[in-house]
Write a structure and sequence with these properties.
210 residues; single chain; disordered N terminus; mainly alpha
Amino acid sequence: MGASREEGGGSHSGRYSAGDLRAIGFQGVSAHDAPEKVLKDLFAWVESFATESINWYTREKVSKARWSRFLRLAAVSCFTLGTVTPVVAVGMGWSKESIWGYGLIGLGACCLAIDRVCGFSSSWMRYVSTAISLNRRLLTFQASWPRIEARVARNPHADEFSDAVQELVDFVDGFAMLMETETLAWVSEFQNHVLQLETGTTPALPSRSQ
């Protein structure tokens, strides 16, 4: 499932209490603060937002991975047992019990269907790739930030300050775009699954020959 975001206060406490990725409130800066301090506060807020977002994906992928592995392992086990059961039953002279093999194969198919409809495997892979992309983007920006701060410290004029703030804005925008792309992928996947379920449970009416 994609990360939902809600408005929150400045405190980080309980940000994950509902399982959602909530917003980090910004306390604001004073107009009398020096440009270096303003940039430092802005960077701390942006870095906190990015770190919390990455941590959300890293944490949420654990439960998705656990369910994906369980359902996939259960499906493989059921398919294997369902294939072997009729052979063993016939070999042991228990022909009537061979029908259990079909039940096990059906159970394995149910496990795969649950995984597909709930999106455990797809969400796991999507969360991992998104976390890696977000982390790479954050590390690159963290490495380049000292250069931006030094540039403003050497020339603390309005233009340099504005350029530094714009780089922060561009980073947040690109960072949020990656998260939005992941969320839209989840929405599209969920809508497709709902459509498949509706199509599968509503049989088409037979055509009547004239």
